[in-house]
């Protein structure tokens, strides 16, 4: 109808987001977040954006009546939320609804990395069990490990709770110590890495965590060390990790995220002690549906004059009071 707000979808997005946006708003789609794909009159009609792609300051400035950017995913490092906030534009993300799924995936990736289950299955499927006998015993195990969680937020805490049930001691590093957990806190990543042999990285991407996991941190984990990375690829110094795995400075790594997705360095793929997943930590139908609904529910609430459901911290001050 003529009274419905207009919502823009730049680039690819989850199918349920697209269907609901088309059903509940006047929907406009463009191939990528490039403002030159629309004329000024079309841009002036846009009041909401639903996105799963990078949104920079210039793109935000191209929409004079923009009111909300609803980003798909909990990590929103690709959206310039500070700039949006300075322009009075709300930014929402999709926290909590994916935390259990991502934590489950992290435990699976950790076990696959240590116990080589993907390789053992490939061995069976290749007929080698029958032809050659038992799969070789794995040098690595979860037993006896001490886990360090870099980023004990919503997902990190869900991972910690699972690994506590596995009987493992947990340490963590965040900028601010949590007062609701008893796990030992470390005031630096270097201190955490020195105290543990298994480092799980689940901090947000962005400048503050860029290449934080470098050669020094990997060296501190030691030759039995294992790195699991499920936050953002930008947080790992990938060439340093490749060298550490090749030289056995650490024992193994499990990665769901990479510096230049979907391109994974051949050197990483060639390493037998790297266990690699194509950014699937939250990628079940049910969890992605819950994320999709939260994207559209944020748009619907905000464009109807109500508070956003899940505003990002940079935009919390813009939020409306519940009536
Ligand atoms: P939260 O904001 O709840 O947690 C982030 C944690 O990281 C907090 O404990 C925070 O503590 C800590 N942190 C942030 N910056 C730093 C820093 N510079 N140094 C040390 N610690 C830091 O986020 P979630 O747990 O919900 O999500 C975490 C991230 O996981 C997302 O941002 C996303 O990038 C990634 N992710 C990846 C997925 C995948 O598919 N692989 C799926 C979902 C999420 P403090 O502020 O005190 O430092």
Automatic annotation (TrEMBL):
<feature type="domain" description="D-isomer specific 2-hydroxyacid dehydrogenase catalytic">
    <location>
        <begin position="18"/>
        <end position="312"/>
    </location>
</feature>
<dbReference type="InterPro" id="IPR036291">
    <property type="entry name" value="NAD(P)-bd_dom_sf"/>
</dbReference>
<dbReference type="InterPro" id="IPR006139">
    <property type="entry name" value="D-isomer_2_OHA_DH_cat_dom"/>
</dbReference>
<feature type="domain" description="D-isomer specific 2-hydroxyacid dehydrogenase NAD-binding">
    <location>
        <begin position="107"/>
        <end position="281"/>
    </location>
</feature>
<keyword id="KW-0560">Oxidoreductase</keyword>
<dbReference type="InterPro" id="IPR029752">
    <property type="entry name" value="D-isomer_DH_CS1"/>
</dbReference>
<protein>
    <submittedName>
        <fullName>2-hydroxyacid dehydrogenase</fullName>
    </submittedName>
</protein>
<keyword id="KW-0520">NAD</keyword>
<dbReference type="InterPro" id="IPR006140">
    <property type="entry name" value="D-isomer_DH_NAD-bd"/>
</dbReference>
<dbReference type="Pfam" id="PF02826">
    <property type="entry name" value="2-Hacid_dh_C"/>
</dbReference>
<comment type="similarity">
    <text>Belongs to the D-isomer specific 2-hydroxyacid dehydrogenase family.</text>
</comment>
<dbReference type="InterPro" id="IPR050223">
    <property type="entry name" value="D-isomer_2-hydroxyacid_DH"/>
</dbReference>
<dbReference type="Pfam" id="PF00389">
    <property type="entry name" value="2-Hacid_dh"/>
</dbReference>
